[in-house]
């Protein structure tokens, strides 16, 4: 038999291997991966139910439990970036008509509200301006007013550089039969966080920030209360891919034999495993301390340049993402472009409500070093001088 010839010819651009410059990623993520993580990613593939791969998944579960500080049986990683974990959390807990309270002080609260609404929730919001955080009294009052069955709080609001205090929120939720969902994509590993002690029911993070793995697999954990809510649903979970009961089986979190649910992103899982392993070796305490030390150096350096930090209250600042107010007479975008084109250093503009108003500088995982703080300060200063309007 003679095959027909292909009609669409291979594009010239595909006929050479991939190449690009090395960049220092000092934006709000992804951050650069440590060489050990990249090496893990290059290991040979395994099948998605091979014993060795199940063992990698068990390592990831153990690493995620450590990072979240939880004993939850249903702790795993969803295949997808932070948004996938966010969607997995919401689609499993929310049923049409449920009242969901969203604490919104930036882009990520708005995104959670959008997702919850898509899943049929009756969304209520409590709002403070970007750069500010909620008091426990704010949250208590909103809960009393709306009587939600789920409350969403973003621990590290990366669009504004705030870190939301969580003490007491879990107790409020428990007293009202409400579940507590917390986004730690930008914060986990970079600041103290204790899922169980804080009474958190569902929590997720991303791989590409402090954990230092490529984006694409995202740890998530469901408490027993959360799983009881899932079991008591009147309607089926609308997503097959993110159905936590199916995922829990594939991840070996239930008593049954592991069944094929989907093909896990094998290589990305190796990388996540290695990132979590490095975090465990460093220990959370040392990692939290390293991020705070570097962040303080950055904050002081920014103020020494005569610039203003968006988050005035130091206690409410997120060590992993710092928002710097763009001064009058400086074109924020040209500064970002200058840092990249002249120095291959990424800093980022604002996002959502902070777009055009701030620069965001990330200090995450492998990149959270004093040397990188000094480098980014030098590059930023040069760029601002070069880009005065
Ligand atoms: N939540 C927060 C707080 C984030 O910072 C991000 C990523 N910037 C996300 C969720 C979404 O993660 P991803 O981009 O990996 O989908």
TrEMBL record:
<dbReference type="InterPro" id="IPR000192">
    <property type="entry name" value="Aminotrans_V_dom"/>
</dbReference>
<dbReference type="InterPro" id="IPR015422">
    <property type="entry name" value="PyrdxlP-dep_Trfase_small"/>
</dbReference>
<protein>
    <recommendedName>
        <fullName>Alanine--glyoxylate aminotransferase</fullName>
        <ecNumber>2.6.1.44</ecNumber>
    </recommendedName>
</protein>
<dbReference type="InterPro" id="IPR015421">
    <property type="entry name" value="PyrdxlP-dep_Trfase_major"/>
</dbReference>
<dbReference type="InterPro" id="IPR020578">
    <property type="entry name" value="Aminotrans_V_PyrdxlP_BS"/>
</dbReference>
<dbReference type="InterPro" id="IPR015424">
    <property type="entry name" value="PyrdxlP-dep_Trfase"/>
</dbReference>
<dbReference type="InterPro" id="IPR024169">
    <property type="entry name" value="SP_NH2Trfase/AEP_transaminase"/>
</dbReference>
<keyword id="KW-0663">Pyridoxal phosphate</keyword>
<feature type="domain" description="Aminotransferase class V">
    <location>
        <begin position="46"/>
        <end position="374"/>
    </location>
</feature>
<dbReference type="Pfam" id="PF00266">
    <property type="entry name" value="Aminotran_5"/>
</dbReference>
<comment type="similarity">
    <text>Belongs to the class-V pyridoxal-phosphate-dependent aminotransferase family.</text>
</comment>
């Amino acid at each position: 038999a003679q095959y027909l010839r292909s009609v669409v010819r291979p594009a010239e651009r595909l006929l050479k291997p991939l190449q690009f410059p090395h960049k220092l990623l000092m934006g709000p993520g992804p951050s650069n991966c440590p060489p050990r993580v990249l090496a893990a990613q290059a290991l040979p593939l395994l099948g998605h139910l091979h014993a060795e791969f199940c063992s990698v998944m068990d390592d990831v579960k153990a690493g995620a439990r450590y990072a979240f500080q939880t004993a939850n049986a249903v702790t795993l990683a969803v295949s997808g970036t932070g948004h996938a974990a966010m969607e997995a959390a919401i689609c499993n807990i929310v049923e049409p008509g449920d009242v969901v309270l969203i604490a919104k002080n930036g882009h990520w609260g708005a995104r959670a509200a959008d997702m919850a609404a898509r899943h049929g929730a009756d969304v209520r919001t409590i709002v403070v301006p970007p750069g500010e955080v909620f008091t426990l009294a704010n949250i208590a009052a909103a809960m009393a007013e709306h009587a939600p069955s789920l409350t969403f709080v973003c621990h590290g609001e990366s669009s504004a550089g705030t870190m939301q205090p969580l003490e007491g929120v879990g107790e409020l939720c428990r007293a009202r039969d409400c579940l507590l969902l917390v986004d730690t994509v930008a914060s986990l590993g970079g600041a103290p966080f204790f899922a169980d002690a804080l009474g958190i029911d569902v929590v997720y993070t991303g791989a590409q920030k402090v954990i230092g793995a490529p984006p694409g697999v995202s740890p998530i954990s469901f408490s027993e209360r959360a799983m009881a809510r899932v079991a008591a649903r009147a309607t089926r979970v609308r997503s097959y891919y993110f159905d936590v009961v199916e995922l829990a089986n594939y991840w070996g979190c239930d008593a049954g034999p592991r069944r094929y649910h989907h093909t896990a992103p094998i290589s990305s899982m190796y990388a996540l495993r290695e990132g979590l392993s490095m975090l465990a070796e460093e220990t959370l305490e040392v990692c939290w301390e390293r991020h705070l030390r570097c962040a303080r150096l950055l904050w002081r350096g920014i103020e020494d340049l005569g610039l203003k930090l968006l988050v005035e209250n130091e206690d409410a600042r997120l060590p992993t993402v710092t928002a710097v107010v763009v001064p009058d007479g400086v074109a924020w975008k040209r500064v970002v472009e200058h840092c990249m084109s002249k120095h291959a250093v990424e800093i980022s503009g604002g996002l959502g409500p902070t777009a055009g108003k701030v620069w965001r500088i990330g200090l995450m995982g492998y990149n959270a070093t004093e040397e990188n703080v000094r480098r980014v300060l030098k590059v930023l200063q040069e760029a601002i001088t070069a880009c005065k309007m």
